[in-house]
Structure formats: C-alpha cells, structure tokens
Amino acid sequence: MYLSRCGLDCDTCENREKCDCPGCLELEEGNWAGDCEIKKCCEDKLLEHCGFCPDFPCDLLRNTAFDPEDGDDGERLITLKRWSEEEPTAKRRAISRPLCGLAVGVTAGAVFGAFTGGFGAMVFACALVGTAVGLFIDLSAKK
Prior knowledge:
Layout: H1 14-18, H2 37-44, H3 59-65, H4 75-86, H5 90-116, H6 119-141
C-alpha cells in the first residue's frame, strides 16, 4: 500500500509521528509541510503516485528527491519505480471498467434490440450508457 505520492517512505519519515501525518493519500489538502505540488499534480492526473505518470521522473520530482534539505538522494525515485513495477496491471485496470461497461451495454442493447426491433439503435444507446457508467465508477473509485 502506498502512503505517499512522491515515493517517500512514510515508515522512515521523522515528520510522520511528529505531525501525526497519515500519509498524503489520506490527507485532504497538503501534507505535514503544507501544500505539496507533487501531491496536487498526482491528484490532478488521477494517479496514485508519480511512478504511474508518463512523465516520470519529472523535474519537480527530481528536484524534490535531490533537494539538499528535504531530499533523499533519489531513493524515492527507486521506490516509485519498484511500486509501478509491482503493479504492472495498473494501466490495464484503468480502462477495464469502461471496457466492461461497453461490453455489458452492447450485450444488453442486443438483447433489448432483439425484442423491440430497434437492434442498432438499442445496441448503440446501451453501449454509450454502459461505457459512461464504467467511466463514472472508475473515476469514483480513484478518489
């Protein structure tokens, strides 16, 4: 389970206990240090952590990882790479619900269309609804 978006090992973080920080995945805003640009970026992109970002590692993350005061000499970059490799199906899972919704919608549309006589229109309409429901569920699950 991930507690941070930037790959920081929360188990070894001195501020976790000092500030009673549950990890930035659990915080509504900011982190123990205030507003975190990395946390905001991940949340804007609907990513669990930076390791899943197509821009990994970006300049912001690199600068943070090698910051003389708060950095960890790039250890978080290694952690993020490991996290993303441990879950290789994450990208496939990102489209699984909408595709499942599409498949269910097409099937339901075919069944309803067979009984009502409007086969093509019914398949199309149900496919749209199924895909929309799948997207809604997928986006809701990521919050």
